[in-house]
Every structure is written in structure tokens, then in C-alpha cells.
Design brief:
10 strands, globular, three-stranded antiparallel sheet, alpha+beta, 23% strand
Length: 295
């Protein structure tokens, strides 16, 4: 995919009249490899501020060996969040499938020449989330593999349109469990991305997990953060393993595509934002409690 981020994001910062207030970055270790983690924050008023205890309140994050690419990834995710919050409760919400799935599942922003690049990334994310929900609800098979990364195991779930979703998991050195998931055309490519997500999950858990288990910190109010902590625990991980050991009740259903289009708006001056929305197997991922594997 040919990215024009260096060109299209050249004036994305607020000091140049753009929507991004600031970008912060630092060194981030991923299974022994040095990577760069970048966080982008939009200008005040473009998105609602979230009250989070574990995760960063940044609007976008990116991880890559090259600092410039990590920054561009963070900006793309921030633009995606801007588009989501601008449309999800608007009169046009149904045009982009938000009446069926009111989350940011299946959204992607990409600063390329061809809009199909944004569509491909959005489609992969939609398939990832649909496959994850289907597996957790017992409607898809997950196959266990060991990976080339020490101590990291993987669950592979065949996608409804081909490709594969991979969930990676590992016990951390401080006692909790960390997870990551991603979808790609091949197992190897999906595993690479899922391991990066696992490392990011472990990184944000590190201080919060120790404070939580010691009782120094109360459980967060955010549902997805509570799920993150629950599945990091022994009880939560055993729930994950029970699902992995159980047989699916049937084959994964072919999902209905409820939206497949770009989202127009002021963010289009910088990147194409695409929504590829699938009708989820149920709304449990949004409504169930702490013991649902989705955050």
C-alpha cells in the first residue's frame, strides 16, 4: 500500500491549522525488539474526553520500528476516531451501519491515493471483530498453535471471507495474562500484528495490574477496561482456556455487510476514512459483563 502520509499529514498539527493538537512518542519493546510507540491527541472539542484508568486517553496510537511511520499510524487512528464520534449519533448514522453496530468496528483511515487501501484495512478489522465475537459465542472453531515467540501461544480462527484472525496470549512476568488479536490474509502476518497488540496490552497492564491485585486501586468504571483486568486474572484466563477447549456449536455464519463506504467529512482533507460494517452475531459484545472476551 502506497502511503502519502508524509505529504497529506504535513499540515495535520494544530499549529498549521490541522486537527491534531500534539503527538508524543517513545521507545516501546515488543518481544525483545525496539519499536516506537506514538500517541496522537486531537484538538479540544473534536472528540469527547474519556475517563480511563488503564489505557491512554490519546485519540490514536501507532507502533512501528520507524518513528515517522508510528506517528503517521497514530494520526490515522485519531482521524478515524474523529470521524466515528462525528457520525455515530448523527442523522446519517444508519448510512454507515452504526444503527446495527454502534462501535468503531470496521473503521480505518489511510492517507493513500487509492481509497481501496482504507477499505482493505477496514475490512480486515471488521472480520477480526466478527470472528472474535463468533468464536467467543461458540459459533466458530479456534485452533491452538505455539508461536516462534517464547511463551506466546496463538488461536487461529478462519475468517468468513478467507484469511484468518489470530489471538495471541502469554503469561506476563508480573503474573497477569496479556492478549492481542489481528486479522490478515495469512497466519504469519496476523500473528505478527497480534504480537504487537499483545505487547501493547502487557505494557498498559503492567502498573495497573499490580495496583489492582494489591487492592491499592479500585476496578475501573469503563467496561472494556474491567474486561481487560478480568481476563488478565487467573479466573479470567481459565475462562478463556475453557472456551478454547470447548467445541463450537456450529459453523461460523456468513455475515451480512451493512455498510461498505467512505465516511465524508473534514478528515477527508488528510485521509480516506472507510467503514466496512458487518452485522454481528449478537449484541452481547456491547452489553454483556466483565467476563465477555472483547475490549
Amino acid at each position: 500500500m502506497l502511503s502519502l502520509a508524509a505529504l497529506r499529514y504535513r499540515n495535520v498539527l494544530a499549529v498549521h491549522g490541522g486537527p491534531v493538537d500534539r503527538i508524543e512518542s517513545g521507545v516501546f519493546p515488543v518481544c525483545g525488539r525496539r519499536m516506537i510507540q506514538a500517541n496522537a491527541r486531537l484538538s479540544a472539542g473534536l472528540t469527547p474526553r474519556r475517563s480511563l484508568s488503564i489505557y491512554s486517553d490519546a485519540d490514536g496510537s501507532g507502533t512501528h520500528p520507524r518513528a515517522s511511520v508510528a506517528r503517521h499510524m497514530a494520526v490515522s487512528e485519531a482521524l478515524e476516531r474523529w470521524a466515528f464520534h462525528s457520525v455515530v449519533r448523527s442523522p446519517r448514522a444508519a448510512e454507515f451501519g452504526f444503527d446495527v453496530d454502534p462501535s468503531s468496528n470496521g473503521m480505518s483511515a489511510f492517507p493513500g491515493i487509492r481509497r481501496t487501501n482504507a477499505r482493505r484495512k477496514a475490512m480486515l478489522e471488521a472480520v477480526e471483530r466478527y470472528s472474535l465475537i463468533s468464536w467467543w459465542e461458540g459459533c466458530a472453531e479456534g485452533r491452538l498453535f505455539e508461536t516462534d515467540w517464547p511463551g506466546v501461544s496463538a488461536v487461529a480462527i478462519d475468517g468468513p471471507f478467507g484469511g484468518v484472525t489470530v489471538i495471541t496470549f502469554a503469561r506476563t512476568e508480573y503474573g497477569g495474562y496479556a492478549y492481542g488479536h489481528a486479522a490478515e490474509e495469512s497466519f504469519g502476518a496476523a500473528c505478527e500484528r497480534a504480537v504487537v497488540e499483545l505487547a501493547r496490552h502487557e505494557w498498559v497492564l503492567r502498573s495497573s495490574w499490580l495496583a489492582f491485585v494489591s487492592g491499592a486501586k479500585r476496578a475501573p468504571s469503563d467496561l472494556f477496561e474491567r474486561r481487560c483486568l478480568y481476563f488478565a486474572s487467573e479466573a479470567g484466563h481459565e475462562s478463556f482456556l475453557r472456551r478454547l477447549r470447548s467445541k463450537p456449536s456450529g459453523a461460523m455464519a456468513m455475515p451480512a455487510v451493512v455498510a461498505d463506504r467512505d465516511i465524508p467529512g473534514p478528515w477527508a482533507a488528510y485521509a480516506t476514512v472507510w467503514r466496512f460494517a458487518l452485522r454481528p452475531p449478537s449484541d452481547r459484545f456491547f452489553k454483556d459483563g466483565d467476563d465477555y472476551f472483547f475490549w
